[in-house]
## 1
Amino acid sequence: MYKAIFLAIALSFCAATAFANAPVFADIDADKDGALSAEEAATVGIGSELFTKLDVDQNGTLSAEEYAALK
Ligand SMILES: [Ca+2]
Ligand SMILES: [Ca+2]
C-alpha cells in the first residue's frame, strides 16, 4: 500500500521533470549576476525581438520574473 503510493509520487515527479523542458533561469545565467543579458538569452534561442518584448522594464537584461513570463 505505502509502496504503491510512494511509486505513484515518484512517477509523477519524474513525469513533471521530464516535461519541464524550458531552460532553468540559473542555467542560462552564465555569469551568475542574477540577470540574463541578450547574449545569455540568445544561447536558449531568445532572439532580440523576443528579448525586447520580455524586458518589461527595458533595462537591457531579463530578471527571473521577466524570464518567467515566457512560460
Ligand atoms: Ca547574466
Ligand atoms: Ca529587465
## 2
Amino acid sequence: MTPLSQKTPSIAAITRGCVVKATNNNRKGRTQSITTTFSSLSKNYTMTEIELKPTELVYLKDTYVFRLEDEATVIGLRQQQDEGTNVFYEIALDKTIAYPAGGGQPSDEGKVCIHTDQNVWFHFDSVRMERETKQVWHRGSFSKDSEEMSLANVRGQKCTIEVDERIRLQHAKMHSAGHLLDVAVASIPGLETNILVPTKGSHGVKDAYVEYKGNARTLSGIEGDDEKLMKLMNENLEKLIEKNDIIKTEYLAYEDAKRACGGHLPSYISPDAEEAPRIVTVANLGCPCGGTHVKSSSELKRVTVTALRVKKGVTRISYSVDL
Ligand SMILES: [Zn+2]
C-alpha cells in the first residue's frame, strides 16, 4: 500500500500504492550552493550555501511522536509562488516528524517554532519530500507577528516542530486500514495476493481505496455478485479487528523481507540496496511501506468496504474507517 523507508536517518522514500521503493541515500550528505532571494516583507534576503543533506524522518520510528522539542534545525527556506499570484514559504529541516505526502497518504499539518531571539512561528499545511535531495519541505506561512523577522537568519536555527495530532492519527488509521483490507481480501480463497495483486492506493479520509491487478468478480461462487463479495470482505475485516493483531514495522534483510511479503517483493526493491527495506506486517501479511501506522488493528474500530469497481482488469475496492 504505501511509501518507503530506511533504517537510519538519511532516508528516501518514493512511494507508489502501498508499496515502497528503496533508494540509496548519501549518508555523508552533500553541500551545494543555492541562492534564493526573498523579495517580500519589504526587504530582500539572500541565502547561499544551503546544506543539501537528506532529512531524518523521525515519523518512521514512531507514529505517536507529535512534538519534537528543540531538536531540529532549519536547513532551508524558500519563497515560492503558486500558479496564481499567491506567495508561500517552504522550510526544510534536518529532521522532521511531519509525514510528506506519498504512497496515497496525505501529508501532515502542523507548526514550527523557530528559536531566534524571538520565537518565529511558521504554520504548514502540506509537506513534501524533494526527490533529488531527499529533503522534507514544509509549506505554509509565518505568523503575522513574525513578519518583520529577518528570514535570512532562520537558517541554522534550532526549532520545535509539532504535527496536528488529530490529523496524524486519522491518516495513520486510514493508511493502516488499507493494509487490513489487503489481508481481508487475500484471506478469501481465490483472491490471494498472487491472484489479486495490490498495486496502488489512496488513503485520504474522504477518498480511500486500494487497487488490485486482477478481476475480483471472476471469483468462483460469486458470479459477479458485488454485494456478496463486499460482505465477505467486511466479515473478514471485522474478524481482523476483533483479533487485535499487532501492526509490526521492521527493517529486514532482502530475503527475509521477501518471505514476509508472501515470497515476492516489488522489482524496485533491489537485493543490493544499501539499506534494508522497511516491512509492515499485519496478520502475517507483509508489505514494503514507508507510511505511518497505528499499533494494532483494534485501534481501527471499524473498517467497511463501501464500493467495488472493475475496469480494464483492475479491481478498485473503496473503504471507509470509523474515525
Ligand atoms: Zn503502510
## 3
Amino acid sequence: MKRRKRMKVLGQWVTLEHTDLQSEELWGDCDVAKRHIRIKVDATDDEYNRVLRHEVCHMRLGISGLSELMTPELEEALAVLAETP
Ligand SMILES: [Zn+2]
C-alpha cells in the first residue's frame, strides 16, 4: 500500500513521516505545532491504518483546540475510539 507523505487535516497540510520508532516503543506520535505525524515504518497495512486514524484524531483535537478542554486520558480514549472505522 502506498503511504502518503502529507494529507489535509481540518483544512491544513500535515506531513507524514514513516520512520523507525523501535527505540521509543511507539507506534506513532503527533506533533500538533509542527503539523507532523510519525508512524512506525515497519507497521503492516492494518497497523498503519489504525495508527494513522489514532494520530489524526490527536491532530484534529489539537488543531481545533478541543484537546485544551480535556484531560490527556480523555483525549487518549477518544483517539483509541477513532482507531476502528
Ligand atoms: Zn494516543
## 4
Amino acid sequence: MKRLGPTVAALLLAAPLVAEDAPKRSAAFETYCIVCHGEDGKANTEEGKKKGARDLTNAKWQATVSDSRLEGSITRGRDKMPAFGRKLTAEQIKALVAEVRSLAQSH
Ligand code: HEC
C-alpha cells in the first residue's frame, strides 16, 4: 500500500504535461481573428492596438452583449473590425461566437 501502482504513477507524470498545453484556438479564429485579437483573445497585438480591438476575455463586457449582437458584429463588422460575412459561413460565425464566450475571464 505504500507504493503507488504504475498506472497512478503514470497519471501523476502526465498531468503537468496536459496542464501546460497552450489554449488552442479554432482554425477559423487562427486564420481570421488572431491578427487583431491575439491567440488569447486579449488583443495584445500590434494590429489590435492600432485598430482598438476589444479584449474578448473581459467577462464584464461579455455579460452586457447578446449572442446575436456578437454574431452581427462578426458578420457585418463593427467600427474598425472588418466584416466576415463573405469569408465565413453562418455556422462558422456561430461557432466563433461560442468560442468568444469560452474566452471570458473575470477581471
Ligand atoms: C483588423 C482587426 C480585427 C480583426 C481581424 C478581427 N477583429 Fe474583432 N474587433 C476588432 C475591433 C477594432 C473591435 C472593436 C469594435 C468596437 O467595439 O467598436 C472588435 C470587436 C470584436 C467583437 C465585439 C463586437 C461587439 O459587438 O462588441 C467580437 C465578438 C470580435 N471582435 C470577434 C472577432 C472575430 C471572431 C474575428 C475573426 C473572425 C475578429 N473579431 C477579427 C478588430 C478586429
